[in-house]
Every structure is written in structure tokens, then in C-alpha cells.
Amino acid sequence: MLNAEGLRPTTDRNKETLFNWLMPYVNNARCLDVFAGSGGLGLEALSRYASHCDFIELDKQAATQLKSNLTLVNASNTAATGVHQGDALNILKGISDAPYDIIFVDPPFAKGLVAPTLAAIVDNNLVQSGSVIYLEHESTLVTPLLPAHWNIIKDKQTSALRYMLIEVN
């Protein structure tokens, strides 16, 4: 695994909980892994038969490694994938003309990226009714006010982080 500064992969335990939550949604889903890092969440979705996953990662080395990992697991041949290297908030402006079924939002801690990322998802029409968003952030951060048609359907907290599944109605 790449050892990039600030890279904080989702723990296996949290990933197991998340994909138990996502079981009804992931088959044939179009996914977006924002702040992808090692790409663990998107790769797991592809391994569970998601049809597509776009990955966004700021760190050039991490994005290059993610492209290599996709090739190694042959994901680039079994599902449509794209790795976009650069600033997530800028990339979200033009990443897709179609909404995603599942979006993973797990930004670096203490960077103030949660609220602007959620706003960019709304502003760029990246979700529709039935979409779900996985949000992970530090436990000390108050989750920003969500749009009225977004509902938190699953929510867990540890001493270090809070993670939740949000459904768009």
C-alpha cells in the first residue's frame, strides 16, 4: 500500500459495516470515490459487482498507484472506471453528465472539505432520488446541514470518526 502523507484508508471493520449497509444498492451501481486515496472503497464496490466507478485523488503518486491497482485486479476490463487526478472540488464540476448511485465521501481530516464537497455534489447534479452517499469525517466535526431531501439512514461513531449513509429522496 502507498504511504502518502494524510492517506487514511477506511479500516476493514468500517468497510465491512459500510458494505453491509450498501448490500441492497451496490449491484450494477454507478459509483464515485471522492478523495479516493488507495481506492479501497471504489475497488470494493467493483468487487461486489458495481458496474462503474470513477475515482478522484489529489495526490499524483496515489492516483498513479490506483491506476496500477485497477490494472492488476483487471477492473479496467470488467467495469468502466476512470481515475481523475487533481482537486476534487474542481473535478466534481465536470466529472459526469449522469448521476451516481453511490458516492463515497471520505475527505482528509481537518481540511474543511465536507460541506463544500456535499455542496458540489448537489450543485453538479451528481445524485438523484435513490442515490446514497457514504460520508466519513472526524468525530469532532458537526455534520453540515443536509438538503431537505437527504436522510441519514445509517450512522455510527467511534472516538476518532463518524460515518454515515445518506439516502437521497
TrEMBL record:
PANTHER family: METHYLTRANSFERASE. It comes from the Bacteria. InterPro entries: RNA_MeTrfase_RsmD, SAM-dependent_MTases_sf. Gene3D superfamilies: Vaccinia Virus protein VP39 (3.40.50.150). It holds the Pfam family Cons_hypoth95. It comes from Alteromonas mediterranea 615. Keywords: Methyltransferase, rRNA processing, S-adenosyl-L-methionine, Transferase. Belongs to the methyltransferase superfamily. RsmD family. Specifically methylates the guanine in position 966 of 16S rRNA in the assembled 30S particle. SUPFAM superfamilies: S-adenosyl-L-methionine-dependent methyltransferases (SSF53335). It catalyses: guanosine(966) in 16S rRNA + S-adenosyl-L-methionine = N(2)-methylguanosine(966) in 16S rRNA + S-adenosyl-L-homocysteine + H(+). Its EC number is 2.1.1.171. It is an enzyme of class 2 (transferase). This is Ribosomal RNA small subunit methyltransferase D. One of its GO terms (molecular function) is 16S rRNA (guanine(966)-N(2))-methyltransferase activity.
